[in-house]
Amino acid sequence: MRSQNRTVMLDGAMGTMLQKSGMRVGQIPEELNIDDPGLVIDVHRKYIEAGAQVIYTCTFGANRKKLRNYAVSRVVAQAIENARLARGSQDVKIALDIGPLGEMLEPLGTLKFEEAYELFREIIEAGRGADAIVIETMTDLYEVRAAVLAARENSPLPIFVTMSFEADGRTFAGVSLETFVNSIGGLGIAGIGINCSLGPLQMYDMAKQLVTMTDLAIVIKPNAGMPGMDGSYDLAAADFAAGMEKIQQLGVKYVGGCCGTDEEYIRLLAERVRDRDVPPRNIRKLSGVSSATRFLPDGGIRVVGERLNPTGKKRYQQALMDGDIPYIVGQAVEQVDGGAEVLDLNVGFPGVDEAGMQRRLVKEIQAVLDTPLQIDSTRVEALEAALRVYNGRAIVNSVNGEDDSLEEILPLVKKYHAQVIGLTLDKRGIPDTAEERLEIAAKIVRAAAEYGIPKEDIYIDCLTLTVSSQPEAAMETLRAVRLVRQQLGVRTVLGVSNISFGLPNREAINQSFLTMALYEGLDLAIINPNSRPMMETVRSFKVLRNEEGATEDFISSYGNVKVEKAPEKAGDHTIASAVSRGLDQVVRAEVRQLLETMDELDIVDRELIPALDRVGSDYESGRIFLPQLIRSAGAAQAGFELIRDSISNKGRDAISKGDVLVATVKGDVHDIGKNIARVMMESYGYNVIDLGRDVEIADVVRTAKEKNIRLVGLSALMTTTLDNMRETIVQLRQEIPDITIMVGGAVLTEAYSREIGADYYVKDARADVEVARKVFGN
Amino acid sequence: MDLKIRNISRNEILNYLRYAGGEIPADTEAMIARATEEVMAGARAKYRCVEKAKDAAELRDVLQGRDVEAMLAGCDRVLLLAVTLGREIEMLIRRHAFADLAYAVVLDAVASAAVESLAEDINRELAGKYAPCHLTDRFSPGYGDMPMSVQEPLLRLLNAEKDLGLTTTAGHIMIPRKSISAILGVSPLPQPKRAPGCEGCRLYANCEIRKRGGSCAKSE
User: Fold this and answer.
1) Distance from B220 to chain A by nearest Cα, in Å?
2) Cβ of B99 and A634 within 8 Å?
3) pLDDT of B74-126, one tens digit each?
4) pLDDT, tens digit, for every residue of A15-58?
5) Angle formed by the axes of helices A263-273 and A237-248, nearest 10°
6) HSE (CB half, 13 Å, CA atoms) of B115?
7) CA nearest neighbour of A172 among A193, A203, A141
8) E strands within A534-665?
């Protein structure tokens, strides 16, 4: 907002002042800009008189969700006008103030990222007459991302962002200073900081950390201390000013006050710090990858999970084709449980809308895991779709040495502030010698620099070739890794598993190659983290290299491995008893044995289903309860997977007892009941297409039509979303008159389900199976 | 205000799991124990309570319906209350729903019981604080004839978005889901506890036992 390096005085609270000046109960403060502009102008004037050099417009909640009587554009325009009137001819800047939308974004809430972007865009377009944009009091990094992108793409004004942290150093959404700075600091903003929630005393330590993490200008705007039960704040104006002066001395350029502060607080603070030189900061810029809540600093060896990649993985390919999100997210969770610190995500497969699938999966995965993502595609539109909705700082996998690739992809890397992998290949293919690969790597690093992407953000992939077909290739790749590191000073990455293709006992080769590559200084190892030997290699290498925390990690990973009780063996159980006790390993072993002598369908009909029926009737009679029922279904399903594999290996048609579509209706986020229904039906051999929760009505109808669905299951848990259930049913019936619809959820009853036009009311976790049996006649 | 979970009612957990008697197998017990530990450690529980005069103008949007009016008949003050487990638990439940659904179901039940236990703790503390006055039962949007849309003005008076990170969806669902908002009356006279019958129960709308025509005959 001001160029010379002097301390700039911001204003104090707007709401506090309006309340004091007699704003009436229930009034929306932003609408005062129109209803009683004099009140707002008066607050601005008081702050300017007290010494504020920047005033925030009265637009904190001026969004479509919160305004009641006036359009956003009108309120924002009038708010800027009011600020101008208060400013007159004085040298004061006007900041367009933007607060949270008031509704939680996905995945916890139902507000879509794209909708949030549009809501912010509306404010920003109306606010072009300001001198700067201030996005403040944010707790959700995703909302910040939507706001910053909207600001950047629709306004030339400089952007300042502040979030509200609790005393434990995290926002309500779990965002830390590190993840905030790492993800948002590079999105082309002018200043970053902290406001609200705490007083200057509680904020001091956080401010002290923040000034070292980034070279951006810092903004600090705390409350007047901490609130008491009656809502008043505990810090007097003089104490506030004293606390803030200490914060200014850390090298903070923009200072002001939030809730509870008034013109007196600003006056006393301005007397102390206004226009003073900003002390120099000792900056060690933060760099690394991050999700909303987890930051992985650069340096150290990182395991990147390779499993979300269709190459050679039939089941994953099928899941991409079917949109089988639970399977894919399950694979992601499994890799993280295995030890992956970053997940590679590749969805490129013929027939799959790559951009759409990237967008969807990025959202689904970040909804359940805090593991940073590596977006793997060569298609610009797929990369952009993923980078835009990724709530953090990702790695782009990848660019190569071709001009087209560099020119198309590097601008995206820069725009979304990602890190990038550069492959040492170009039009000629993969060069044979390490020197030639170094040359391509050097070209990539040079090109990146032209776009303003520093070396720290680049990983060079010297490319793993299959050693069985090119025996000299492994050593050449390793030599290239060394050269790239030594001569370019960038970090390196390798996809390891390719080395052993075509050889028996692949893991032995993979393990040795990984050890050698790590010794050459490999930074990112793209491997299968579910492979115990591979993870052992990484963890032991870290110990030997004396990495910080490596020994503790090694001990916690392997120190508690007790001599396991001899696993229960197939012979100890029948399928029935194994299913009823939920022992999936045993069910598998039993099924495997039976497959030698019995037909697949017979195993299903004579063993698995009767076992499940028995469990089901135990559940209905109250002899077992819900967790056991689910475990049993899971165990039976493990057996089913084996049977499916066996059938597909024999080249026969897959067995499915019928396709069922399930969804939790629009507006509802309670999906556990729907998940249970899915697992129950899957355990009986039905193919369940699960559209997830908060599902648009149009998506249910379209999918049902596309997939020729005969049975749809809908769930809703809240009375307020039953209308959406009814509407989904109406539209399904219009498009597919003979479709059967079953509904379930705590607020439903038999009578009500009839009233809204459903065919069946599913009263508990198992009733869906009975409906499916009737509909499909099996 | 930050809050510590002191105990989680085991009966409440079993209720949420629709336990109908009989032996609880060892692995289910183990899941309950693990989930209890995880919820106690992972929750970032917070609450806020404000007191208003019953005739305060700002309560007009909140005290909607005849039922709450009846409950507050003998009261001069009203307490508004919101408590939440925070957002971390939500993510935890969703993660497990993909990896181990049975455990996710247990975790969900434990979290529901935990926020209920917290509300009970606060309730007790308030009762002590206001003695010798008496408190009514807790009444929440969605009970009786009070519309769910009361949720927004109620949370606004509690400054719940800023102070607790608690918001609602367009359909008035509280996010984070493991949250309770409530209204209590303060009266100089002893207050009748709600009838132990189904009508006064907070599980009324969702109760499976009642839907089957039965009753748990749970009495206070």
Assistant:
1) 24
2) no
3) 999 999 999 999 999 998 999 999 888 999 999 999 999 999 999 999 999 99
4) 989 988 888 877 899 999 999 999 999 999 999 999 999 999 99
5) 40
6) 28
7) A141
8) 659-664
> Rounded to whole angstroms, how far apart are CA atoms A335 and A343?
8
Cα A70 from Cα A74, distance rounded (Å): 7
CA distance A301 to A80: 51
CA pair distance A177, A179, nearest whole angstrom: 6
Please give the order of strands across the beta sheet that includes A760-762: A687-690, A659-664, A711-715, A740-744, A760-762
Residue type, A768: D
Asked if A109 lies within 8 A of B163 by C-beta distance, the reply is: no
B86 touches chain A (CB under 8 A): yes
What residue in B sits closest to A678 (Cα-Cα)? B101
Q: How many beta carbons lie within 10 A of that of residue B105, not counting itself?
A: 28
If you ran DSSP here, which 8-state letter would residue B139 be given?
Answer: B
Q: Tokens for A170?
A: 């995290």
Beta carbons within 10 angstroms of residue A251's beta carbon = 21
Nearest to A626 among B17, B164, B169 (CB): B17
Of A153, A108, A110, A105, nearest to A133 by C-alpha is A153
pLDDT in tens, A489-543: 999 999 999 999 999 999 999 999 999 999 999 999 999 999 999 999 999 999 9
Q: What angle do CA A621, A637, A532 make, to 5 degrees?
A: 130
Q: Is the dihedral of CA A533, A535, A541, A544 positive or negative?
A: negative
Q: How far apart are CA A759 and CA A742, in angstroms?
A: 6
* Tokens 């972007």 found at: A117
Q: Is B36 on the interface with A (CB under 8 A)?
A: no
φ/ψ of residue A230, rounded to 5 = -85, 5
The total of other beta-carbon atoms located within 10 Å of residue A148's CB is 22
Among B165, B183, B41, B42, CA closest to A108 = B165
Name the token pair of B39: 């919820």
Euclidean distance between CA atoms A44 and A20, whole angstroms: 14
Phi, psi of A564, rounded to the nearest 5 degrees: -70, 145
Neighbours of A118 (CB within 10 A): 12
What are the tokens at A247? 């914060």
Tell me A488's DSSP state. I
Number of H helices, E strands in chain B: 8, 6
- In whole angstroms, what is the distance from residue B95 CA to residue A136 CA? 30
Closest to A714 in 3D by CA, of A731, A698, A693: A693
Name every residue whose Cβ is closer than 8 Å to that of residue A767 and which is 6 or more positions away in sequence.
A744, A760, A761
Give ipTM to 2 decimals. 0.86
Burial class (CB in 10 A: 0-12, 13-18, 19+), B8: buried
CA dist A291 and A182 (Å) reads: 9
Distance CA A320, CA A402 (A): 29
Contacts of B179 in chain A (CB under 8 A): none
The amino acid sitting at A399 is V
Contacts of B84 in chain A (CB under 8 A): none
Q: Which residues of A touch B148 (CB under 8 A)?
A: 718-720
CB atoms within 10 A of CB A593: 13
With residues binned 3-state (H G I as helix, E B as strand, rest as coil), the percentages for chain A, rounded to 5, are 50, 15, 35
Q: At A134, phi and psi to the nearest 5? A: -120, 120
Q: State the DSSP code for A426.
A: B
Q: What is the DSSP letter of A429?
A: B
Around Cβ A569, how many Cβ atoms within 10 Å? 11
Whole-angstrom distance, CA of residue B125 vs CA of residue B131: 10
- Does the distance separating the beta carbons of B49 and A229 come in below 8 Å? yes
**Entry pTM:** 0.91
Nearest residue to A183 via CA among A281, A296, A342, A39: A296
